[in-house]
Design goal:
The protein is α+β, with helices and mostly antiparallel strands. The protein is 16% helix and 43% strand. The longest helix is centred in the N-terminal third of the chain and has 19 residues.
């Protein structure tokens, strides 16, 4: 009987370890490019956010959480134009952790960056 209990405990601990080792990825991203005209393209980042998670806005006040961003490698082929656009607008509410109003998204978000292209190859 004691041997069965030890075996059962080993099986349960092994299963628990596997669960604890799972990587949590509450946000998945899909990227696309839309040509606006001969000199401009839009890079579109679509986020799908699992509940109950949230994704912070791209525009947050200093001293708050880290804002969501799109980072582009430096290149002679393109140059970002203007600020990131958010669709829909981020929902704003008071965050007790940071003691300030912060914007965030639930379920879905789209972030768009316009780029000016300097070559037909881009």
């Amino acid at each position: 009987m004691r041997r069965k209990n030890v075996l059962l405990l080993l099986v349960l601990l092994t299963g628990w370890t596997g669960l604890a080792a799972q990587v949590i990825k509450p946000v998945t991203w899909k990227f696309s490019v839309n040509r606006v005209d001969a000199q401009k393209v839009e890079v579109i980042a679509d986020a799908t956010i699992e509940e109950p998670w949230h994704l912070y806005s791209t525009n947050l006040p200093e001293g708050g959480p880290v804002a969501t961003s799109l980072n582009f490698d430096a290149s002679d082929l393109y140059q970002p134009i203007g600020k990131l656009q958010e669709v829909p607008e981020a929902k704003v509410s008071f965050d007790e952790t940071f003691e300030m109003e912060v914007g965030y998204f639930s379920k879905k978000a789209r972030i768009i960056q316009q780029l000016e292209v300097s070559s037909a190859e881009a």
